[in-house]
Design goal:
Blueprint: H1 15-26, E1 33-37, H2 44-57, E2 62-63, E3 78-81, H3 89-101, E4 105-110, H4 117-129, E5 131-134, H5 140-148, H6 157-167, H7 171-183, H8 196-200, H9 203-207, H10 211-221, H11 228-235, H12 239-251, H13 263-272, H14 275-291, H15 297-305
Organism: Micromonospora tarensis
Protein name: AAA+ ATPase domain-containing protein
InterPro entries: P-loop_NTPase
């Protein structure tokens, strides 16, 4: 995985990405066909920026937008495309034709969802003719390596455990939390909660998500098991629609592959969501649980833990898988 440090000058890489950058640095004009997949906040844009920097420094022409249909692209130009999952089929088709010529150097980054048929064909072509890179969360060791660049924060295991647990290793959130801790007043004792300034940074992430995603996040933040039938009633959709909302939320880097929210995301969701939205979602969950004859007490305990039924209490840490 890859992510800028706070000063924007250091990268934290796994061996595969380090090998890719080493190869590019040794031969900036050599063959290069790469597909980069990863949820939001996992470092796609940072990796593209580093590839752009290396190539421009070597005097290579770089293009950072997908060409329009019919628009010529010089063979010696490196084409870097971010957020390819947002492109229409026509521009994806242009990229697919560039791969097919085997004359162009191309790096395409995208989220795992949404995945149109055209994008799937492009991803397959990039993998077949070059290499596929999958960006995943930091391991604890990578989080420790990232924190080592900020010696003023200390090097204790408690700091590493706090940052890694709160962020679930998502590079964007490791960066945010590290920056927030570095800017906070001198701390004493054990770290318990992230600085409020860090929580507020999630506001823009939540604001751009569609209403079904925000409702899903509030439901997951309540804790407890959430059957597809209950989520379908909450989201007003069928099981396939529930799967799509879950995939979208995961692709945004807000929901883990295990169906959990990282503690820092859970706190942001419960803190920053409008009160009316929180109340509506959590009341609907309670009503759905009653209607299906399920036990209400575990859900009520979860709602109490995140402040749904008593706003004076702070969100508790995530303690159970939630989607099944």
């Amino acid at each position: 995985m890859i992510m800028n440090d706070l000063a924007g000058s250091r990268l934290t890489l796994d061996r595969g990405l380090q090998a890719l950058l080493d190869t590019v640095a040794q031969d900036p004009t050599g063959p290069l066909t790469v597909g980069i997949a990863g949820p939001g906040g996992h470092g796609k844009t940072t990796l593209l920026a580093e590839l752009e920097r290396v190539h421009r420094q070597a005097g290579v022409s770089v293009r950072t937008t997908a060409p329009q249909p019919g628009e010529p692209v010089e063979d010696d130009t490196l084409v870097l495309v971010d957020d390819a999952h947002l492109l229409d089929d026509a521009r994806v088709g242009v990229l697919l034709r560039l791969v097919g010529t085997r004359r162009h150097r191309l790096v395409v980054a995208h989220r795992p969802w949404p995945r149109s048929a055209a994008l799937s064909e492009l991803v397959d072509a990039l993998r077949r003719d070059g290499q596929a890179v999958l960006l995943t969360p930091f391991t604890r060791e990578q989080t420790a390596e990232y924190l080592a660049a900020r010696p003023e924060l200390g090097r204790g295991n408690d700091l590493v455990d706090f940052v890694h647990t709160q962020s679930a290793g998502v590079p964007r959130d490791v960066e945010r939390l590290t920056r927030g801790l570095a800017g906070a007043e001198a701390r004493t004792g054990t770290l318990v909660n992230p600085p409020r300034s860090v929580i507020l940074e999630f506001g823009s992430d939540l604001d751009v998500e569609p209403a079904p995603v925000r409702r899903l996040l509030l439901a997951v933040a309540a804790g407890g098991a959430l059957p597809v039938s209950m989520l379908g009633a909450l989201l007003g959709t069928d099981p396939a629609g529930v799967d799509e909302v879950i995939a979208t939320t995961r692709a945004a880097g807000l929901l883990g592959a295990d169906g959990r929210l990282a503690p820092i995301v859970r706190r942001a969701v419960t803190t920053l969501s409008p009160t009316t939205d929180r109340t509506a979602v959590w009341r609907r969950l309670t009503e759905s649980q009653l209607a299906r004859g399920g036990a209400v007490l575990p859900l009520v305990r979860s709602l109490l833990a995140v402040g749904a039924l008593c706003l004076c209490r702070a969100p508790a840490p995530v303690d159970a898988p939630v989607l099944r």
